[in-house]
Design a protein that fits this description.
Layout (H helix, E strand, L loop, with lengths): L1 E2 L5 E2 L4 E8 L2 H15 L3 E8 L13 H13 L6 E3 L11 H15 L3 E5 L6 H13 L4 E5 L12 E5 L1 H11 L13 H14 L4 E9 L3
Helix pairs in contact: 1-5, 2-5, 3-4
Length: about 220
């Protein structure tokens, strides 16, 4: 990242990779930051490892989440060619750790990411911890930031903050609204999204922010 005149950093021309164990995790964890990074002309890539076909409500097609992640990432502004969707079975990613590691190594070689966003290392969901652990192995030479999904975290280290504007939060909400299969869940509520961003912004004296655990920082 490059330093701006006010001492903050921007993402111009950086290759950014978002790792989402399930469709919607990336938008929930760093959707506002994705909107900001794209605004600053970063190259943003998104990899989802499970479309959770077995968990889709009965009145939707089984592949509905794949459709929704395409709409959600497009709403944020991610180019369709930069979306990678894998079809591993939900809640069983730990059974295919080696296959996931090989996918990640292929992404590393293709994208050469400067920064990789992944679930926090303190996330207790088995799929999330699998992607994070394999991500740490695969991306030894990239900055690694862990995003917060507070309903899965026993604790969370607020090591790094990304300042956001109202328009970035609105983009995040717009993206999450594409997930019709997830309607009614508390963490999808626009009021919750705004409130959490407001809390994180208050911690650093700005209106809105997202915060991240620093797993590895390369300057």
């Amino acid at each position: 990242m490059y330093q701006q005149n006010d001492g903050t950093m921007n993402f111009i021309n950086k290759n950014i990779l978002i790792l989402a164990p399930h469709t919607d995790d990336g938008e929930l964890g760093c959707g506002g930051s994705i909107a900001k990074m794209l605004e600053e002309k970063a190259n943003v890539y998104y990899a989802a490892f499970s479309t959770a076909d077995q968990s889709v409500p009965a009145h939707f097609p089984s592949n509905q989440l794949e459709t929704e992640v395409k709409k959600a990432t497009q709403a944020l502004g991610i180019h369709p060619n930069n979306l990678f969707v894998y079809k591993y079975e939900v809640r069983k990613l730990n059974y295919v750790r080696q296959e996931i590691l090989e996918n990640l190594i292929q992404l590393r070689n293709e994208i050469k990411p400067d920064i990789v966003f992944m679930p926090s290392s303190k996330d207790i969901h088995q799929d999330h911890s699998t992607v994070t652990n394999e991500g740490i192995r695969a991306f030894k030479f990239s900055t690694l930031l862990g995003y917060e999904l507070i309903w899965n975290n026993l604790s969370f280290d607020t090591d790094c903050f990304i300042k956001l504007r109202q328009r970035h939060i609105e983009k995040k909400v717009e993206a999450l609204q594409q997930y019709k299969t997830q309607e009614g869940k508390n963490y999808m509520d626009p009021d919750f999204i705004h409130s959490l961003a407001k809390v994180r912004g208050t911690q650093i004296g700005t209106n809105f922010a997202e915060t991240f655990e620093v797993i590895r920082w390369i300057i």
